[in-house]
Amino acid sequence: MILTNDHDFPQTPASMEGVTATLASSPTALSSSQRQVPSIHLHPLTGSGAFYPKTIPLPLGNRVVVGRSQAGDTEDGTNGLFPCQWMSRNHALIWSGQDGKVLIRDTRSSNGTWINGSRLSAKGEKSERFTLQCHDILEFGEGQDGVPSIKAEVFDDPTLCIACKTLPVSINSPLVPSLKRNRTLSGGGRTSPKQGLRHRLSVSFSPHVHVPGRNHSGNESDETTAGPGRSRLLPDGTVLDDKALPKTPRMERPSSITSFTTVKTIQDNFEAEFSLLDIGMANQPSGSDDHELKTAPLVTREALDLGVGEHIKQYGLLGQVAAVYSKSKSERFRDPRIYVNTNAPMSTVVCGVQGSGKSHTVGVLLENMLLPPDPRFGQTQKPLSGLVLHYGEGSATTRTPCEAAHIALCTDSSVTPPPVRVYVSPASLNTMKRVYAPLGSGVVVEPLYFSEEELDAQAFLSIMAVSGGSDSAPLYMQVILNILRQLGENYTYTEFIRQLDEHKQNFNSAQLAGLEQRMALLKSFLEPPTQANSAVATIGTSTNRRASVMSTTSVSPPSRRSSAPRFAEGQLTVIDLSDPFIDPASAAGLFDIVLRLFIRADVGTGKVCVVDEAHKYLSTEGGKGATSELTKSLLSLIRQQRHLGMRIIISTQEPTVLPPVLIDLCSCLILHRFSSKGWYDHLLSHISADMPDDAFAQLVSLKTGQALVVSPACIAAFTPSTPPTTGSSANKKAVAQLSRKYLIIKTRKRLTNDGGASIMVV
User: Fold this and answer.
1) Which of 166, 352, 541, 653 could pair covalently with 356 via S-S, beta carbons 3.0-4.6 A apart?
2) Cα–Cα distance between 321 and 333 in angstroms, integer?
3) Which residues pair with 298 in a beta bridge?
4) Which domains are seen in the chain, by residue range?
């Protein structure tokens, strides 16, 4: 409690005759001086910002400052401090007069003090002194767009005040006489055009506080004398004295000590319930919840400077914001920088035609997540582990490296690029080594092999392109499913193959051909056996026994993957299945196996998975096959990204080939230039942004590197639609979520090489 001595007030209590309210007393005051100390009881009402109930003592001769709390202040139940940004530091004064009246005065607050909807003084001006009366509505501050601040209703009994806590008596309650509901200030007050837009709290007085008619005066003596027979001015001009006022039904008054005990018990119960609530959140701007700040996918520089940086520990520079748009207006940020929150899981869809900057944006996102700390692109404490799924087309002479692998090249000696490991089809190993050779020694190309331990039952279902519950699968697939069900948790690759060989005896030639075709693809990615196992496996009849044994010493086994981990912190792993003998469905099945291995891998940091050129193998035509299995895995991954510490980036030229639910679930949609109205209409039905009529024209006219970004959870600093009433805070911005707005951004330059550059003739 902040108290200021007031020498104008006497230090001894006045007579308590003629009281009109039954109020609690302070036990401390009774025990020490056998006197009752007046106090004011504050409790939240419907529509108010949440705060803990308060019982503030009002000793005679002291004034209680009501205002905004600051760092280091203690917001307890005995002071007038509130965690409300719309209140001034010294907003108002409340004190008890010599005759027991409770008085209030606005002390040049920024956003005003109201009684029954009438403002006590103009902005920046000190008000007269007013007397608080039973059932008055007391309000402090008026927030942005009508955001509530503090609103109070005056009660004449603390037990009634607390008993009504769960169902507050509002100004329109039938318990409040109509005459008192219509009561107005009798001079000097200025009516607010926005009544009911401030915080609410219930107020009662203790001990016996006399509350005669409202009065304000310019001299001190008029305010500290009771003055029986005061008159009141009604809205219609009628003047009534106190004797003509209707009386509120009263409960039997308990003793002051009993009343205090009852009030204290009930108040303790309410404080226990309030301990489970986020007190003060109701009067905070949208997006200011700690969890929303920590998990925001994007954040602007101005928002970081306004305190969001305390919640986001790791972020990378994405680019600059040209403007933020809604259906009715646009706004430009003073500081245009925008960052991607690399510390929190997120899902991003990047789309656009060739040459629009799509691959460049994906490269920027990977740099922010994989490069060591560098002051040029934000704040990085711990690099992530990356996985890129890539499927290309073309012959051996026309294949190109995955563009994401160019992150291993950098002409700036001050930048340490991350190591890149590329896993390719064993049948195309030599070809792919030549393809990636221009990227230098920072890129290591290895064959993609799976060990028997990695090939679980789900891996077989993926590579066989069949759903675990498919009733339309061919007979040999039903046999495989039945074997897998019977093995259950006891599954091993060796036992599965043994039982499959037994059942193959009953297959006809057509079924055997289909089964062998699937098994051949799987075996081509199975890790080669050791030399000893290879010799044993090849021993057959006595005629070839000698040659088989000799193979253990004279024949080298097939190429094997190195002992280096497939996934690691600060490393980018590329699965490139560009092979003329691998169709999109088979590639999707292999990607599904790798994706589950990546999820299970323990890398000691966060993970990012890039689904590159998704339109080539993520098509949902027919809704069946291995492609749908990969889609299910991605959907499950996005739904569980927070629990798995995963960031998913899906890059595609054509957004219509993606399952609509992927767009529905993504936390950030980055749209580079395209000119298809069909694509735009498809996206429009799955995004939350309130797009204006000219949004498609904006999208078509985007320059290379520019993008339209839709991210409702993005945190930014916006100019209030209704500016504050004080000149000192006229330019102050509020942190809020992007919600239904959208951004036009320009991605930053890359620190590493960009592999998506166009090849020109001249």
Assistant:
1) 352
2) 7
3) 340
4) 3-283 (2.60.200.20), 293-448+561-747 (3.40.50.300)
